[in-house]
Every structure is written in C-alpha cells, then in structure tokens.
UniProtKB/TrEMBL annotation, chain A:
Lineage, highest ranks first: Bacteria, Bacillati, Actinomycetota, Actinomycetes, Mycobacteriales
Gene3D superfamilies associated with the record: Dioxygenase LigAB, LigA subunit
InterPro entries: LigA_sf
Highest rank taxon of the organism: Bacteria
Organism, scientific name: Mycolicibacterium goodii (Mycobacterium goodii)
Protein name in UniProt: Extradiol ring-cleavage dioxygenase LigAB LigA subunit domain-containing protein
UniProtKB/TrEMBL annotation, chain B:
Name of the protein in its database record: Extradiol ring-cleavage dioxygenase class III enzyme subunit B domain-containing protein
InterPro entries, alphabetized: Xdiol_dOase_suB (IPR004183)
Domain Extradiol ring-cleavage dioxygenase class III enzyme subunit B: from-to ranges: 13-264
Length: 94, 267
C-alpha cells in the first residue's frame, strides 16, 4: 500500500542511509560542522552503496526522497545543510 | 460526562503545530495574529476549565523515535514535560501519578502503548503549549506521542477509540481532564507538494466537525489521509474522541496558507 504515498513505509534496505540522515539531523553543532567540513569522510563511516553516498555528499534532497528516504528526514537534513551554507557565506563576507 | 450521557472529558481542542506559527518568518502577519489569538483563547478556556491535567496528543517528527524502534503510541510518565524547537524550550509540570493511571487503564482495556520517563518532546508539543501558556494556561500535562508519519501508522478509527478510552479512564478515576490534539491541517512537509496543501479537503473536514460528523473523519483510510496531507489528524481523532462520540466544533479558527491550513478548534 505504501508505494504511492507521500510518506511511504521506509525500506529496510535503506536503514543505514536513513540512519546517517537522522544522525546528521540530531548531531550537535560540532558534529554537523565535522560533516560539512568533509562530507566524504563522514559518510565513509556508514555502510552505504555509491549512490547513497553521492546523494548525501551532493546534498541531493530530492534524490533522497526519490530513493525512499522519509521526506521528514530529508527536509530536516536540507534545512540544516542550507542554514550552515548560509552561515558560512555570512562569515566569509564579514 | 457529555450532554448525551456518555463519558467525556471536560474540554477538547485541536490545533496546528507548524514551526512557522512560532518562528513567525514565513506567513502573513494577519494569519499569525489570528492563530496566536485563537491559541491565547485556548489557554484561557483550558485554565477556566479547572482541569487536573491536559492530555496532549502529538507526534515525533523522527527525532526521538528512529527506525530501530517506532512505537505506535507512547504515554509519557516522567516529569517535568519538556518540549523544544530550535533550542527554545517549554517546560510544564507533569502528573506522573495520573499518567501511570491512564497507562494502566489503557493496558487493561485493549490498548498496549509504550511508555517513556525521559524524552524531550518536539515542536508538535512545544508550539501549542507555548501559546497556551501565553494565554494563561497553567495545568499539568500528560503527553501521548502517536506515530502519525511513519507507515504503518495506527488506523484513525483506532485513534478515535483511544480517545473514548481516555474519557472512560477520566470518568472512572474521577479526574477533570482536557485533551489537545495537535497537527494539521493539510500539509506535505518535505515533498514536492509542499506549496499545494489541499485546502478544499480542509474545508470539508471543518464542515464535518461543525456538524458533529467526526465519524466521517475517522472513516478515512491511511491512504486518504496521506493523499490529503492529513496524517496528523490522527491526533485530532484522539482528542475529539475523548470529548464524545459526536461532539460538535464550538469555536473554529481556520487560516489557510500556501503551505498548510492552520486551525484551532474547540469541542
């Protein structure tokens, strides 16, 4: 039943990817800064296939949702990344 | 006890919990003002109701409950009640004695909720509590966390029955209880439909509730709730069910926005 839903049942095959996105969502500021400083190194700690790694390191929110990652997780990840990018630009311009 | 002579809590509210209501950086000021005013009124009405506790039914936006364990419903039996949004927190007194009494009652009456003594609740609790307190509400809170977003969720009819059981518990225990179900109305956070909430569906549901036709709401399937962006109305079904089998909306505030239909409704 879940396949056509806006909020589908999470695929167990993507547990590790969802766990990474959730960890990023819940990370403290230092933890998230560590991810932003070197996304590839951070993502390498998780057992992910190449496509999953790329979705996260390229900040591909739509791709995450298309893959089946819960939109709530994807959007919270997106907000955090974008906020950090915005703050980084602000810092540079000060 | 309701006018119909059935078990019923003293007062029930349902209302939106969108972060934007608190953060005030996206919606038109007049929309926010209307919702803030409605929540202030709610705080006042709850305070006037002289309650022993307010049962707040809301959800977890995949913060505390990740996929290693997703409880369908959880009664918070610890204290105090702490809810947060963007490093801002609201802290209200709990009633662990009543929360445990409710938990025991549910376990003895065909429900098997999980329970938690320690958790920081998310904005689904924080936003309505923040504005209720601003309106003068000072009452202990019993949180119930319902899984409304991660399928498979409880059927909405089951949520309504949970509300009926809360009413029976309150009557048996001789306590004055109110309910507040948070969420909705139509919205699709994180999806491509974010800027296209189903406002027509909102109007239809509001009209059912004005007519005391909650049965139409609880007849909706999980798929229909998802399609209409109304998965969170499961929380409403609990709060309304606690007020009676067919209570009518007595005071309705509804404000559509480009991303969510905001409502605060008293039963």
């Amino acid at each position: 039943m879940s396949n056509d839903l806006y909020y589908p049942r999470p695929r167990h095959e993507d547990y590790e990817l969802a766990r990474l996105v959730h960890d990023l969502q819940e990370a403290d500021d230092d933890g998230f800064a560590e991810f932003m400083a070197d996304p590839q190194a951070f993502v390498a700690r998780y057992d992910l296939d190449d496509q999953a790694q790329k979705l996260v390191t390229s900040f591909d929110y739509d791709g995450l949702v298309k893959r089946g990652i819960h939109p709530m997780l994807s959007v919270q990840y997106m907000r955090r990344v974008e906020w950090n990018l915005k703050m980084a630009v602000k810092k540079e311009t000060v | 006890m309701s006018d119909a002579g059935e078990p019923a809590v003293e007062i029930a509210f349902v209302g939106s919990h969108a972060p934007q209501i608190f953060l005030e950086r996206q919606d038109p000021p007049e929309v926010l003002a209307a919702i803030h005013q409605a929540y202030a009124r709610m705080g006042q009405r709850i305070q006037e109701s002289n309650l022993d506790a307010l049962v707040v039914i809301a959800l977890d936006h995949i913060h505390n409950h990740f996929y290693n364990l997703v409880p369908t419903m959880t009664v918070f039996t610890g204290g105090p009640v702490v809810a947060a949004l963007n490093q801002k927190t609201v802290e209200v007194p709990a009633r662990p004695d009543l929360a445990n009494g409710l938990l025991d009652h549910l376990l003895a009456h065909d429900f098997d909720p999980a329970w938690s003594q320690k958790t920081v609740l998310d904005h689904s609790f924080m936003v309505p509590l923040h504005f209720g307190i601003k309106g003068g509400m000072d009452v202990p809170v019993i949180p119930i966390i319902l899984n409304t977003y991660v399928p498979p969720q409880p059927e909405i009819t089951r949520c309504f029955k949970l509300g009926r059981e809360i009413a029976r518990w309150a009557q048996n225990a001789g306590v004055r209880i109110g309910t507040l179900g948070t969420g909705g109305m139509s919205h699709y956070p994180g999806t491509h439909r974010y800027h296209n909430p189903d406002i027509a569906a909102d109007h239809e549901v509001v009209s059912w509730l004005r007519n005391g036709e909650v049965d139409k709401l609880v007849a909706m399937s999980a798929k229909e709730l998802d399609e209409k962006g109304m998965t969170e109305l499961r929380n409403w079904a609990v709060a309304i069910g606690a007020r009676g089998t067919a209570p009518k909306a007595r005071h309705v505030t509804y404000e559509p926005t480009d991303h969510c239909g905001y409502a605060v409704i008293e039963f």
